[in-house]
Amino acid sequence: MKLTMRSIHNEYLNHRFELPENPMRVVCLVSSATEVMDKLGLLDRVVGVSEYCDRYVDTTNIPVVGQYITADFEKIKELEPDLVLLTTGIQRKLSLKLAGEGVPIYNLNLPCSFAGMLENVALLGGLLNVLPEARELVSAMREQFSHLSKLHRLSDRPRVYVELWLGRHRRAVGGLSYINDLVELAGGSLVFGERAVGYFENDLDALPEERPDVYLFFHEPEFLVDGEELVHERGWDTDIPVIMSTVKMGENMIQDGPSLLDTSVWLHQKIKEELG
């Protein structure tokens, strides 16, 4: 039987490749795509993952072929993938190297909003030729978002300062990040939500002027962060409550997959507990 192929243009890299009509061998180096494929019942198509994917999906029997910015090129080639999925931004350098090796690469946009997350689900459905199923997932996520928006309404939206520790790199979060929508969905208002930037190094000395009601810190297991200790060291108001986010599914601020909706429920409860 002749295999039907499609010509795919990855505009992010200006990279064109041939993709089977029904890709059956997919390498996911972005955990949100692995989570979406699991939700679509397509985990059996995943033949390689990053070491971070098992935080959200049981990938016990799937080979680990990379991290976030590094990968084992030979292992990936040996898997003979129909498609390798990465994101934009920090994975660009890795993507260019893989594309240069003739690997069929597609980059899903790092979303700047919840709507961008839904677009990625639909786009992934198109690539995998399961668009009707992907659109059903999009509808379900949209309905859950609407339900939680009403359920999580607070009389006064607390101002939430979000700080991400990606390894040893510190970043504050601005309005051009899906995390802004996550905070609002949890009933809060993001400090720096009006800034037209996704992630940036803010002036720590000037933060008290922003009048935060909650400090929210994210850290990874490889580099532990004590939020209360940071607040004390910086001379910030220690009466303001601190919430810690980790890589645990449903408590992870930086996972832009379907579990972000679960994270919003967790964050809403934490804010209510801390602020009464």
Following the backbone from N to C, one meets helices and strands in this order, namely: EEEHEEHEHEHHEEHEEEHEH
Q: Spans of 5+ residues with little confidence (pLDDT < 50)?
A: none
Query: What is the oligomer described by this structure?
Result: single chain
Q: What is the CA-based Rg, rounded?
A: 20 Å
Structure summary, number of beta strands: 13
Averaged pLDDT: 95
Total helical segments: 8
What fraction of the residues are assigned to beta strands by DSSP? Answer: 15-25%
Question: How much helix is in the residues?
Answer: 25-40%
Structural class: alpha/beta
End-to-end Cα distance, whole Å, is 65 Å
Q: Largest sheet, described in full? A: 6 strands, mixed
Q: What is the 3D shape?
A: globular
What does this protein look like?
This protein is α/β, with parallel strands linked by helices and 276 residues long. The protein is 33% helix and 21% strand. The chain contains 8 helices and 13 strands. Strands 8, 9, 10, 11, 12 and 13 form a 6-stranded mixed β-sheet that branches. A 5-stranded parallel β-sheet has the order 5-4-3-6-7, sandwiched between helices. Helix 4 runs antiparallel to helix 5 and helix 4 (114-127) packs across helix 6. The model has no long low-confidence stretch (mean pLDDT 95).
